[in-house]
Amino acid sequence: MDSYYVYGQSSQQAVPAAYRPSKPEDWEPYHDIIAHLYNTLNMKLKDVMSEMQGTYNFKATSVPYDIPAEKQYKTQLKKWNLDTKYIKASEYMFMIKTMRERQAENPPRETRFVLRGRAVDPKDIARFEKRAQKKGTMRDGDPIECDEPVEDLVYGTPPPEEASYHQAAYADAYAAYQYDPSTDYSADYSADYSYSY
Fold first, then answer.
1. Quick one: 96 and 29 in the same domain?
2. 1 lies in a domain?
3. Which helix (H) or strand (E) holds 119?
4. Where are stretches of biased composition, namely Basic and acidic residues (predicted)?
5. Is there a single domain that holds both residue 70 and residue 119?
6. Which of 27, 48, 79 finishes a domain?
7. In this structure, which of 68, 133, 150, 177 has its CB flanked by the most CB atoms within 10 Å?
8. Residue 101: how many CB atoms within 10 A of its CB?
9. Rounded CA gap, 163 and 166, in Å?
10. Domain check: are 122 and 178 in the same one?
11. Both 102 and 172 in a single domain?
12. Left, alpha or beta for 42 (phi > 0: left; psi -120 to 50: alpha)?
């Protein structure tokens, strides 16, 4: 890999003119950098794109394939198995169903989830559930139809000192969430990022 792609490069170092990938293999020299920004530093995709353009002069464009840059990034993240931060609607539904079943047991049990090696924040589950109810895709008390298990999902009861925190975090997030019907939330939970070059 060329020297100007190394982490911690000096801002005074010369960098090449803006590099625009035109085929899948053009992305490969940037794999480690993108993985570091997106997963290790947990940056949002739009911030990763900005950093790649500003620091590394790497700019995905829609030319010549007429494919938006964000979609190109999402395809690469999926190809490299780096899209672990995205949780599908079906995965949220399965977690909510599991939570309800375990809370209905005697005695009720709190549940903590780990999906694809990452702990799922109970606030995210609460926000998804509240949003689904506002949109009418889920009703409180109605059975959830999702019998197919989720791959790479593990769950269990957190230790007593953590259980109260998770329960409170879920309740707070659920109560505080404000649904904005003018906002398109679908991109965050899309299961399909694929396209062909």
1. no
2. no
3. strand 118-119
4. 132-142
5. no
6. 79
7. 150
8. 12
9. 5
10. yes
11. yes
12. left
Range of the domain at 45: 15-79
pLDDT, tens digit (0-9, with 9 covering 90-100), for 156-165: 888 766 666 6
Number of domains making up the chain:
2
What are the structure tokens assigned to 118, written together? 């990452």
What pLDDT digit, counting tens, does each position of 34-86 carry? 988 887 787 888 999 999 988 988 888 755 556 788 888 888 888 887 877 77
Contact 69, 26 (CB under 8 A): no
For residue 196, being part of any structural domain is answered with: no
What tokens were used for 83? 């899209």
Cα four-point dihedral sign 40, 41, 47, 52: negative
The pLDDT value recorded for residue 188 is 41
Kindly provide the b/e burial profile for residues 126-149, where b requires at least 16 CB atoms within 10 angstroms of the residue's own CB: bbbbbbbbeeeebeeeeebebeee
